[in-house]
Amino acid sequence: MTERSLHTQPVALSPAQRAFLLRLSPAEVDCAIAVMLKILDGKCKMPPHEARIMTAVYDVVRHRPALALGADCHRMIATARAENAQRYRADVYEARVLAETRISRPVMKAFKATLRMHGVLPGRNHQTSPGSF
Question: Does any domain span residue 81?
Fold first, then answer.
């Protein structure tokens, strides 16, 4: 699977998963935005199938209100996805680093745990390495 397919071919989510995602808090929407930025800058340590799931999560929640991240991140993501992500990698990296400073590690870990608990991401036995964001 190519890096480009991670963000251009998201997986299909069930109606129940989509309904759950539409109830995420603004802080959790921030987490989805930050993960999408990390996927696009090539630094995401998630297995490819989880990155594709997170791309689908972002697609569901991108129109939901966020707490600290917003239109500038969405524009960056849309541009990088529509064109060659490599061309925008440095800009996406800067946006991702800034996004990560606005989200505490416990908030991100709780977000991923919630997605696992609700069956959006695979269970912990398939989890990425400790400390991956």
Answer: yes
Per residue in 21-50, pLDDT (tens digit) is: 999 999 999 999 999 999 998 888 889 999
Q: Which domain holds residue 7?
A: 3-120
Can you tell me which residue has the tokens 């297995």? 47
Helix (H, G, I), strand (E, B) or coil at 132: coil
Q: Which residues contact 79 (CB under 8 A, 6 or more apart)?
A: 88
83 belongs to a structural domain:
yes
Q: What is the 3-state secondary structure (H, E, C) of 21-76?
A: HCCCCHHHHHHHHHHHHHHHCCCCCCCHHHHHHHHHHHHHHCCCCCCCCCHHHHHH
Q: For the chain, what is the domain count?
A: 1
Q: What is the pLDDT of residues 73-86, one digit of tens each?
A: 999 899 888 876 67
Give the number of other CB atoms < 10 A from CB of residue 114.
Answer: 16
In the block, residue with structure tokens 């199938």: 49
Max Cα-Cα span within the chain: 36
